[in-house]
Design goal:
Layout (H helix, E strand, L loop, with lengths): L2 H19 L7 E2 L1 H8 L3 H14 L2 E4 L3 E4 L4 H25 L2 H18 L6 H16 L5 H8 L2 H9 L5 H19 L3 H28 L12 H5 L7
Antiparallel strand pairs: 1-3, 2-3
């Protein structure tokens, strides 16, 4: 790895951390010269870091005006989950066509593992999402529509970082557990449309839960709640990991 590449990776991590911590506030302009001076690097690593963070959704590029820290508002969340609602049922329908008894056994084991973690009163967001990713990863095995997976992935980091800062809702946890098993039983019965419908409801429930918690945070006087640091796995996880 070249020196500039190493610097840009380090800067990407540092700038992401500062955006998440609220040191660099939502909506703030990100000027190359100022960032270079602040972090003690040249302009090129800054440009590369901003490009990476734009890909992760933390930064928004404005043509001829520069880049800004994304403000995660209700419209942004609704738009992302609308995309997920369209894509996730497609993945589930296709999984129904290729699912073997071995796939179903693994999916049941993953659903049980998630339920076990959810039953632990000390479980945190990271533990829950690790178990949740294991479940959804099985459905994506063999999926050939890579652009669709990339579309799901693109904003996974910022969605998970936003969700991780907010409380875990017990009613939503129970709903997630039930829907995981309902999807499995529909697949086992060969009912692809039922499985797809439950998958859509699964994603919609995640979006509604996140929007509700964001509204509660605003009501409690937190205008821009700081994001929680996503783990490396969370940043690379499919976007549905928040569902």
């Amino acid at each position: 790895m070249s020196k500039n590449s190493s610097l840009s990776h380090r800067l990407t991590n540092d700038l992401r951390r500062d955006i998440i911590a609220g040191v660099v506030e939502p909506g703030a302009w990100l000027k190359t010269e100022e960032l270079a001076a602040r972090y003690g690097v040249s302009a090129n690593p800054v440009r590369e870091a901003l490009w990476r963070l734009q890909g992760e959704g933390f930064v928004v590029a404005n043509p001829n005006r520069g880049a800004r820290v994304r403000t995660v508002d209700d419209d942004f969340i609704r738009n992302i989950f609308e995309i997920r609602e369209a894509i996730e049922p497609i993945f589930v329908r296709r999984f129904c066509q290729r699912a073997t008894p071995q796939h179903l056994d693994r999916l049941r084991a993953a659903a049980d593992a998630f339920a076990e973690v959810a039953a632990n009163p000390l479980a945190d967001f990271e533990a829950l999402e690790a178990a949740n990713r294991d479940y959804h990863a099985i459905i994506l095995e063999g999926e050939f529509n890579i652009p669709a997976i990339e579309a799901m992935d693109r904003y996974a980091g910022i969605i998970n970082a936003t969700r991780a800062k907010l409380p875990i809702t017990l009613s939503r946890l129970r709903q997630r557990i039930n829907q995981h098993h309902e999807i499995i039983e529909a697949i086992a019965a060969g009912d692809a449309e039922m499985a797809a419908r439950i998958a859509m409801e699964h994603v919609r429930g995640a979006g509604d839960d996140l929007l509700s918690l964001m509204r509660q945070a605003r009501t409690n006087g937190v205008r821009h709640p700081r994001l929680a640091e996503p783990t490396r796995a969370a940043r690379k996880a499919p976007a549905d990991s928040a569902s």
